[in-house]
Amino acid sequence: MSRLGALYPAADLPYVSLGTSPTPVRRLDGLGVSQEVWLKDEAAFGDGGWGGNKVRKLEWIIPEAHRRNKKTMFTVGGIGTHWGLAAALYGREHGLHTVLGLVDQPIDDHVREQTARLDASGATIYRYPSVARLKLAAPMILARHRMPYYLPAGGSSPVGSLGYVEVALEIAEQVAAGELPEPATVVSAVGSGGTVAGLALGFRLAGLSTRVFGAVVNDSFRLDAVTTSRLATKTADLMRSRGADIGKVVIGPDDLTATSKWMGETYGATTPEGANALALAERVAGLELEPVYTAKALAAILEGNIPGPILYLNTHGPRPVA
Ligand SMILES: *Cc1c(COP(=O)(O)O)cnc(C)c1O
């Protein structure tokens, strides 16, 4: 059973466990900042041995698809999408076919490998040169697949965001058990917003005063405190509409921080601060980050201005081997 389900037993929010929780926390020393920094390692999450933070969302999205009597999910992303691959492979194990609308992105070795995995995943794939072309084609895709369950990029719908409400409750439990001090700030990368939105709502529900700091790494859509806090409020609305007794909860733009300061030029661009953070994490903590998300979130911490104790989320899961 989920923590959320235990807290709100009357709520009709179906859940399927896809990984082992709680994910481990440990202190990170040697980062050269005065704040205490702790790590919560979401990389360890996912029964397939891989996946990271997207699997947390699928624990709520997959059973919601069944609840809606859907056999097919439709979602979107770049041609190297990790989210799309996680949806295809974890969905397949739970009786769901995945249809992907993918948009071209610059090709490098990593994107080539992802493309091969996506081709082998069993998903039905439509590729387009631009977001505009994908949008034009979307009605055709929806009709051809008989109105599949649509999920926005990154799985950041209110249902997907429940995954990080759950993680906030998990963190609250770990704090109560004395595994780590109550964080003043939790720091995560922001790619589509569901992770920080869910966390902000979850801390409110858990009664922690922990603030969420998001290092935005994606400029494909508007991601700031306004849009991410709105997603948190929509997630609260969903919970209430499904019978969770949470009262009126509104998360506003002052309740969380989302800044693009660490993104660099664009999504996927490497930055010197990120490269430095990546090397430092490996050297002092044996922690393997990647340059696009997690290195940039750690770079934000290394600047030294975020209130501590800080809990840093490593959201990056290892890749599937096959
Ligand atoms: C998707 C992703 C994120 C961001 O999560 P969102 O909920 O999309 O904001 C962070 N880190 C990694 C490694 C991701 O793949």
TrEMBL record:
The keyword Zinc does not apply. Coiled coil: none annotated. The keyword Lyase applies. InterPro entries: ACCD_DCysDesulf, TrpB-like_PALP, TrpB-like_PALP_sf. GO terms for molecular function: D-cysteine desulfhydrase activity. Residues 16-308 form the Tryptophan synthase beta chain-like PALP domain. Pfam families: PALP. It is an enzyme of class 4 (lyase). It comes from the Bacteria. Its cofactor is pyridoxal 5'-phosphate. Keywords: Lyase, Pyridoxal phosphate. Its EC number is 4.4.1.15. Belongs to the ACC deaminase/D-cysteine desulfhydrase family. This is D-cysteine desulfhydrase. The lineage of its organism: Bacteria, Bacillati, Actinomycetota, Actinomycetes, Propionibacteriales.
